Each structure stands twice: as structure tokens, then as C-alpha cells.
Fold this sequence. Notes:
single chain, 4 strands, 3 helices
Amino acid sequence: xxxxxxxxxxxxxxxxxxxxxxxxxxxxxxxxxxxxxxxxxxxxxxxxxxxxxxxxxxxxxxxxxxxxxxxxxxxxxxxxxxxxxxxxxxxxxxxxxxx
Length: 99
């Protein structure tokens, strides 16, 4: 049986494109919450740096997250139309809870 998977991803927007990236990222939140196996999918923006966005995700299995990331239309659309507003991915952690 697969263990729950937690994901933390920090994206940094290209200068002047933070509003565009915010809109593109917000567009994937609700569809992602409906993906099979999703338990939590939240998007944050850093208070003192509007270019830094943080995703906190919780999936019921690594396979569910993999399907979300590689096979869903909303993520494919973001990768094709929105990812050019990303300057860099600062952090991308796949984690298992220890407690």
C-alpha cells in the first residue's frame, strides 16, 4: 500500500510577470483539488515578495500525484501556457510524514 505523499513546491516569477503567473497558478488549484487522490492543494504567495509562490499538496499516494503532474489537462495547459512566466523553481520536495 502506498503512503500518503506531501509536496512542497516554491516557484519564483519572472520580474514584471507576477500577476500573470498568479492567474495561471490559481487556474490549476480547483481542478487539482478534484483530481483523484488529492487531499490538500493550496497556493500561497509570500507576504513580502509577490514573485514567490508556494504550493502545499497532500496526496493519498505517490501514484496519484504522478498522474496529476503528468496526465491532467490543467497541468499540461499550465506547462504549455504558463510556465514561461516562471523564473525558477526554488524548491521541490516530495515528503513522507514521520509521525
